[in-house]
């Protein structure tokens, strides 16, 4: 009698524990790298030509080049995907460039700092990229010209753990 009870308790424990197991193996999910390399675009500051319109750098193919002298990084506060007021002129300049160059496409790459879990940071990075995409579409950029992707905490811009380093990692990079 005691033996049957022990067997039933053991089977019940196995059934309960197997119900808690995750059926999705994250390591087996295929990941496609759609990042573009930046050639010639300055990643700091905001600049414009004499008439208030940003100049355009070109190479033979024109690929990977955006507005000249304009930053390509939008920074965010901790645990936030709200676009800061100081980033709006940068986004407006890129939106004007994309509207003037309808054949061009941009990838908006969302990133986070190292704090938080992998899934949470991927979702936060996606929300950040989507916030910049939405700002651009509200300024008249076609949805087909911008793609929002997230790298979460996988591609840090700064490797340290200071607040300055963490702040550099909370960003969306605009890539052409």
Question: SSE layout and pairings?
Answer:
Blueprint: H1 2-20, E1 73-75, H2 88-100, E2 106-111, H3 118-138, E3 146-152, H4 163-169, E4 171-175
Parallel strand pairs: 2-3
Antiparallel strand pairs: 1-4, 2-4
Helix pairs in contact: 2-3
Structural description of this entry:
- The chain has a four-stranded mixed beta sheet with strand order 1-4-2-3.
- Helix content is 34%, strand content 12%.
- The chain contains four helices and four strands; from the N terminus they run αβαβαβαβ.
- The chain has a domain at 74-175: 60s Ribosomal Protein L30, Chain: A.
- Strand 2 (106-111), helix 3 (118-138) and strand 3 form a beta-alpha-beta unit.
- It is of the alpha+beta class.
- Mean pLDDT is 80; it is low at 24-29, 35-51 and 56-61.
SSE pattern, N- to C-terminal: HEHEHEHE
Principal-axes geometry comes out as elongated
Strand residues, percent: 5-15%
Termini separation:
73 Å
Task: Give a quick precis of the structure.
The chain is of the alpha+beta class and about 180 residues long. The protein is built from four helices and four strands, in the order H-E-H-E-H-E-H-E. It has a domain at about 75-175: 60s Ribosomal Protein L30, Chain: A (2-Layer Sandwich), CATH 3.30.1330.
Distinctive features:
alpha+beta; elongated; 176 residues
């Amino acid at each position: 009698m005691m033996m049957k009870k022990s067997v039933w308790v053991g089977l019940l424990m196995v059934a309960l524990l197997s119900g808690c197991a995750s059926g999705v193996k994250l390591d087996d999910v295929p990941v496609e790298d759609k990042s573009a390399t930046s050639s010639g675009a300055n990643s700091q500051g905001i600049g414009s030509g004499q008439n208030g319109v940003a100049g355009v750098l070109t190479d033979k193919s024109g690929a990977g080049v955006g507005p000249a002298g304009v930053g390509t990084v939008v920074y965010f506060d901790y645990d936030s995907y709200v676009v800061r007021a100081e980033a709006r002129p940068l986004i407006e300049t890129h939106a004007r460039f994309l509207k003037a160059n309808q054949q061009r496409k941009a990838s908006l790459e969302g990133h986070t700092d190292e704090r938080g879990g992998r899934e949470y940071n991927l979702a936060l990075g996606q929300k950040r990229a989507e916030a910049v995409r939405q700002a651009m579409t509200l300024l008249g950029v076609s949805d087909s010209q911008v793609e929002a992707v997230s790298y979460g905490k996988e591609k840090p811009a700064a490797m340290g753990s200071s607040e300055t380093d963490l702040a550099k990692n909370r960003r969306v990079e605009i890539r052409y």
